[in-house]
Amino acid sequence: MKANADFPKDGDIQEFEGPLLADVLKVAGAKGEMVTMTALDGYAIEVKMPDPIDQGAVLALKRNGRPFAVGDYGPTQIVFPRAERADLKDMPDDNWIWSIYHIKVE
């Protein structure tokens, strides 16, 4: 899946590529009301479901055709198609966690 987004907010629009978070959770059989995503440095966010699914969250593996490297937002980053959806235009970067290595759903 490809998603166009400005990241950081109001920056240049870039193309992100990876599976939809909804598809990853479905394949994993994950069910629950909260999703916690943890970065390599221990930073974590907790988001109420189904908000990231409804907002079209992508578990990005590439930016502008180039795979993320560890130390460069990799191995994965949650992005939202902010440049494609008017309802996301004012979304802050708060839930755009990067360097994700663990996702837990409860």
| CATH topology description | Sulfite Oxidase, Chain A, domain 2
Gross geometry:
globular
Q: Specify the CATH class.
A: Alpha Beta
SS field, number of helical segments: 2
Strand arrangement within the widest β-sheet reads 1-2-6-7
Secondary-structure element series = EEHEEHEEEEEEE
- Based on CA atoms alone, the radius of gyration comes out at 13 Å
Biggest beta sheet attributes: 4 strands, antiparallel
> Number of domains in the coordinates?
1
Distance between the termini: 25 Å
Strand percentage lies at 35-45%
**Which structural category do the helix and sheet elements fall into?**
mainly beta
CATH architecture: Alpha-Beta Complex
Task: List the uncertain runs.
Answer: none
SS elements, strand count: 11
Overall mean pLDDT stands at 95
CATH superfamily: Oxidoreductase, molybdopterin-binding domain
What is the helix fraction of residues, given as a range? 10-25%
